[in-house]
Amino acid sequence: MQKNIAIGVDIGGSHICCSAIDLTMHEPINGTMGEQSIDNKASADTILSGWAAALKITLSTIDRNRLSGIGFAMPGPFDYPNGIALFERVEKYESLYGISIIDEMRRRLQLEEDIRIRFINDATSFAIAEAWIGKGKEFSRILALTLGTGFGSAFLVNGTPVIQGNTVPLSGCMWHLRFKEGIADDYFSTRWFTRSYEALTGIRVQGVKEIAEVFETDAASRKLFIEYGTNMGHFLTPWVKKFGAEVIVIGGNITGSYDLFGQYFQKTLLKNGAKADIRVSELKESAAIIGSARLIDEGYWNQVKDLLSKM
């Protein structure tokens, strides 16, 4: 029997989502989604039990004889080649430090030894999916961004991540690069919106959606979206030029408000001579799942496995 099913897993800060992917058809299999809310400050056993519970839902919907492996889109810090958690000083999943996720999942899910378990950075996983079947599939040189709780990035050439060299920042990560009075993550994540809006209005909000909802009537909201798009254009211009990005694919919760900041982002890029198409992901939350599942394809795995130690 052909083992052409992989399970892709997206580990978020407070949840896990997973789904079975048909590696022959390059698409998710309907009715296989497993989800679970996770307390990222809980004990290791509680977190791992939650992850296993979501995966058991997906496993229950497929023929396990056709399962080739499980790929995880995992935030860092993480030992991606060996599947060991290194979460430390990041205020999430710290109880997992030093634990082999491979061993734990194999035991908790009763997986046979021939079932591959592989890991990759979550922002890179998003980019892999977009290059494979998403908005980047028509392009060779892709810059992918995830805009949400954090600021994620990845650079790809012909579907393979580029993580070193003169044209990209180390590991393809930009969140820690200096920008204005801080680092990029300070300006392009959700907390920039919420903190800036409170500073301007005295009103505390939970997320970007609340600020977007008052865009038409609130001067502070309009100011922030203009500033966000303009700042992003200035910050990305040097990297778009160095890398020669043909397209910028963006995803994450903040892209739900792209119509409010996109024109300022595009205008700033063009003004500074950075020419690249900009596409908003349609895969959305499925992208990281699909990208991580692709790790189970042996041909693709051979392209990326040597890069994992540098992520």
Care to describe what's here?
The chain is an alpha/beta fold. It has 2 domains: 5-122 and 287-310, Nucleotidyltransferase, domain 5 (2-Layer Sandwich), CATH 3.30.420; 135-280, Nucleotidyltransferase, domain 5. It contains 10 helices and 15 strands. The protein has helices at residues 44-59, 101-109, 122-133, 184-188, 190-201, 208-213, 219-243, 258-271, 286-293, 298-304, and strands at 5-11, 15-22, 27-28, 34-37, 67-74, 78-79, 84-85, 116-121, 141-147, 151-157, 160-161, 178-179, 182-183, 247-251, 277-280. Strands 1, 2, 3, 4, 5 and 8 form a 6-stranded mixed β-sheet that branches.
Describe this structure in a few short sentences:
The chain folds into 2 domains: about 5-120 and about 285-310, Nucleotidyltransferase, domain 5 (2-Layer Sandwich); about 135-280, ATPase, nucleotide binding domain (Nucleotidyltransferase, domain 5, 2-Layer Sandwich). Helices cover about 35% and strands about 20% of the residues. It has 10 helices and 15 strands.
Mass-distribution shape: globular
Mean pLDDT over the residues: 95
Oligomer, anyone? single chain
What is the CATH C level class of the largest domain, in words?
A: Alpha Beta
Cα-atom Rg, whole angstroms?
A: 19 Å
- Following the backbone from N to C, one meets helices and strands in this order, namely EEEEHEEEHEHEEEEEHHHHEHEHH
Number of strands: 15
Structural class of the helix and strand makeup? alpha/beta
β-sheet strand percentage: 15-25%
Helix content: 25-40%
What composes the largest sheet?
6 strands, mixed
Number of helical regions: 10
CATH third-level topology of the largest domain: Nucleotidyltransferase, domain 5
CATH superfamily of the largest domain: ATPase, nucleotide binding domain
Distance between the first and last residues' Cα: 35 Å
Unreliable stretches (pLDDT < 50, length at least 5) are none
Number of domains: 2
What is the name of the CATH architecture of the largest domain? 2-Layer Sandwich
